[in-house]
Specification:
It contains 15 helices and no strands. By secondary structure, it is mainly α.
Length: 395
C-alpha cells in the first residue's frame, strides 16, 4: 500500500534533525576526550572522543557534520519561508530586506560570540553563523530560480571553487610551514593536485592574510590555527543549495516513499562521489576549508540523516522519542547562543554550591562527564521552558 503524502505546516523531522545537530554541539560539555585521556586503551571512550572533535584535516567525524547539517537545513527551510511570505502578501522588496537583515544579524552574531573573552572584537568569518550569513543573500536569490538553474549554480560553485584552488600556485621550496602553524613533516601534507588544498598554504589562507588584516587586530593575522577560512562560505552556499533542493522535494507533495528513495539516492551519489574524488587524487575531503569533495560527501551524509529522521518521524509516526530533540531544534539560535554564553556560569555555579563530590561518585575519571551532563541538562531545561511558553528566537 502506498503511503500518502504528508502536508503538515511544520515537519517534526526537520526540527528533530536540527535538534540532533545542536545537541551534538551542546554536548561538547561532556568532555569525552578527558575520559579518553584517562583511559587511553578503552575503545568505547576512544570512539566517543573521536566523534566529539573535528578530524585533523581530511576525513570526517560525527562532529564534523554539525556545520554542514546546520547549513543544509537552512536551505531546506527556505522554500517554506518563501511560500509563507508570498502567501502573506509580502512584496519582493520586503522579502529582500528581511533576507539582507538576517544575513547581517548572523554575521554580527557570529563575530560577537567569537569575541567573547577577548580584549577587542575578533573579526573572523569562518564560524557557522558568519558562513551562513555571508552566503544567505545568494541562497535567497537562487530560491526564486527554477531547479535547473539551482543545479547549474551548484555545479558552478563546486567546480569553480576547485579551479580557484588548483590555479593558485603551490608554495615555493623556501616556504616556511612552521611560520603558518604547520609542522613541515605533518602527516596530512599532500602532493600533486591535492597539494593545492594543504593547510595554510592554499588560496583561502592567502585570501585571509589580506582580507582579515583589513580589520582592527591586536596583531597581524598570519594564519588560522585550525586552517579554517573565510572563503569557505562559497562552497557552504553549495551545501545550502543541496538543502534547498531537499526542501523543494519535501514541499512538492510527493509520496513519502518516493521522497525517502530520492533522499537515499542523493545520499549515495554524494558520499560515493566525494570519496571517489578524494581517492583519485583530484581533491581531498576536508571540512576545514570546505573542499568540493567535502561538499559532495557531507551533502550525501545530510541527505542520509534527513531520510532517517523523515522516515522514522513523519512517515512511520514514531516521534514521541524525538520530543527531547524537537525542544532544541525549534529554538536552534537560542541553543547556539546558550552553548556559547553560559557554560562557565552554569558549571561554575554547580561547583560553587555543591562542590566536586557529586560529580565524583563514579571516581575522578568521570567527573568531567557528570559535570557536563548536569550542565547539558540545564541547557535543555531552559530550552524546554522557552518551548512550553512558545518563546522562539527567530532571525
Amino acid at each position: 500500500m502506498e503511503s500518502k503524502p504528508l502536508t503538515p505546516s511544520r515537519l517534526q523531522s526537520l526540527d528533530a534533525y536540527r535538534g540532533f545537530v545542536m545537541l551534538l554541539m551542546m554536548a561538547e560539555v561532556l568532555r569525552f576526550h578527558r575520559i579518553h585521556e584517562a583511559l587511553p586503551d578503552n575503545g568505547f571512550w576512544s570512539f566517543l572522543a573521536y566523534n566529539q572533535d573535528h578530524v585533523d584535516w581530511a576525513g570526517c567525524s560525527l562532529h564534523d557534520l554539525i556545520q554542514p547539517s546546520f547549513s543544509f537545513l537552512v536551505g531546506v527551510a527556505l522554500p517554506y519561508s518563501l511560500a509563507s511570505r508570498q502567501q502573506s502578501g509580502q512584496s519582493t522588496g520586503k522579502q529582500w530586506g528581511h533576507a539582507l537583515r538576517r544575513s547581517l544579524i548572523l554575521i554580527l552574531l557570529g563575530i560577537f560570540l567569537r569575541s567573547m573573552g577577548r580584549e577587542q572584537t575578533n573579526f573572523t568569518f569562518e564560524d557557522t553563523l558568519t558562513q551562513i550569513g555571508l552566503g544567505y543573500p545568494f541562497l535567497f536569490a537562487l530560491g526564486f530560480a527554477k531547479p535547473t538553474g539551482q543545479w547549474i549554480a551548484f555545479a558552478v560553485l563546486v567546480i569553480g571553487y576547485w579551479l580557484m584552488f588548483i590555479l593558485y600556485p603551490l608554495p615555493g621550496p623556501g616556504f616556511s610551514y612552521e611560520a603558518v602553524g604547520v609542522p613541515p613533516d605533518w602527516a596530512h601534507h599532500y602532493t600533486g593536485l591535492m597539494a593545492h588544498f594543504n593547510k595554510n598554504s592554499n588560496l583561502a589562507w592567502a585570501f585571509d592574510t589580506c582580507f582579515l588584516n583589513l580589520f582592527p587586530r591586536a596583531k597581524p593575522f598570519l594564519f588560522n590555527g585550525g586552517g579554517y577560512a573565510t572563503l569557505s562560505f562559497i562552497p557552504t552556499l553549495a551545501t545550502m543549495l543541496l538543502g534547498l533542493q531537499a526542501g523543494r522535494w519535501l514541499k512538492s507533495g510527493s509520496e513519502s516513499t518516493v521522497l525517502v528513495r530520492r533522499f537515499l539516492l542523493a545520499a549515495l551519489i554524494g558520499i560515493v562521489l566525494g570519496i571517489l574524488v578524494h581517492l583519485v587524487g583530484l581533491c581531498p575531503v576536508v571540512k576545514r576549508i570546505w573542499t568540493p569533495a567535502w561538499v559532495l560527501f557531507s551533502g550525501g551524509c545530510c541527505f542520509a540523516l534527513l531520510a532517517l529522521f523523515y522516515f522514522v518521524i513523519d512517515v512511520k509516526k514514531v516521534h514521541r522519542w524525538a520530543y527531547f530533540l524537537i525542544v532544541i531544534g525549534t529554538n536552534s539560535i537560542a541553543a547556539y547562543c546558550i552553548a556559547h554564553l553560559i557554560e562557565h556560569f552554569v558549571m561554575g555555579s554547580f561547583y560553587t554550591h555543591f562542590g566536586a563530590s557529586p560529580f565524583q561518585i563514579f571516581g575522578p575519571v568521570y567527573e568531567p562527564l557528570l559535570a557536563g551532563a548536569a550542565t547539558l541538562l540545564v541547557y535543555w531545561l531552559i530550552l524546554r521552558w522557552m518551548y512550553r511558553r512558545k518563546l522562539f528566537i527567530r532571525i
